[in-house]
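Sequence only, no structure available. Ideas?
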Amino acid sequence: MKYLISFLVMLIVDYVWALYIKGAANNKPIMAAFAGGFIFVAGSFVTIQYVEDRLVLIPATIGGMLGTYLSVRKK
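Reply:
I predicted one. C-alpha cells follow.
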C-alpha cells in the first residue's frame, strides 16, 4: 500500500511542480505559494517513506516521471 501511495503522491507532486512554475512565471503568487507548500509536505511524506524502506524509491521515481510527463503533455 505504501508503494502505491508513494507512486500517486509523487505523480501529483511532479504535476503540481508544473503549476508552481507556471504560477511563478505568470506572477500568480497565491497559486505558486500553495503549490510550493503542497510540494514540501507531500515530498516530505515520500522522503519519510523511502528512509524507512528504500524500495519506495522505485514507485516514487516512476510516479514522478509520469507526473512530469502528464503535466508537459497537457500543456
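The chain has a mean pLDDT of 93.
Hope that gets you unstuck.
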